[in-house]
Amino acid sequence: MFLRRRLLSTASAAAGAIRGPPPIRVALTESSSRGVFATRPVASGEHLHSAEPLLAHPSPSLHHEVCYSCLRRKAAGEERGSSGGGCYFCSDACKEHAKGFHDVGLSVDWSLFDDHCSSYEDLLSAAAASVSCDASVGNALYMLPSFYNHDCDPNTHIVWLENANMKLKALRDIEEGEELRICYIDTSMDVHARQKILADGFGFECRCLRCLSGD
């Protein structure tokens, strides 16, 4: 029930932000099952869409410094905020918003994680986006952004400004019908390092033009 409410909330927020036909669409691809494509020409630097996370969680060491719900950092000099279970919330609204999964987390015996689930930690990291404003503050799961495929020479990138709400922007001019791709890793690494991280952490061999050229 909580996840259903969250999906409806996210969809409503996205619909409210759209003016005119959306600039993107999800479609099937030959190599990656599904992908996101431009429905019209896109200019470099254009903001294509925003998305709220379905779920977000701060890094364990930052529970007292980052909002448990929206991942907004505590402002310098801020002493108080809504709290619960040893976690920081930047507002009562965020505390209420996170109630569905925060209360579940408080009731769990997390010592069982090391015994039974630690081998799946890398899979979770691969499925979730690492939210980085000035530095990584946590992880979040998104609906539409989960369809963006990888390229080591991407034409779009995701930015986070002050919380877990992501924004997708074009890195260059994009043609109508062109697939929008992001880079899952650090683009400055050499081809061998990129291939290893993508294979080990994401489970695929990258065959983008940059990798095929050996760059």
Automatic annotation (TrEMBL):
GO terms for cellular component: nucleus. Residues 22-185 form the SET domain. Gene3D superfamilies: 6.10.140.2220, SET domain (2.170.270.10). It holds the Pfam family SET. CDD domains: SET_SMYD. It comes from the Eukaryota. Transmembrane segments: none annotated. PANTHER family: HISTONE-LYSINE N-METHYLTRANSFERASE ATXR4, HISTONE-LYSINE N-METHYLTRANSFERASE SMYD. This is SET domain-containing protein. It comes from Eleusine coracana subsp. coracana. The lineage of its organism: Eukaryota, Viridiplantae, Streptophyta, Embryophyta, Tracheophyta. The gene is gb07999.
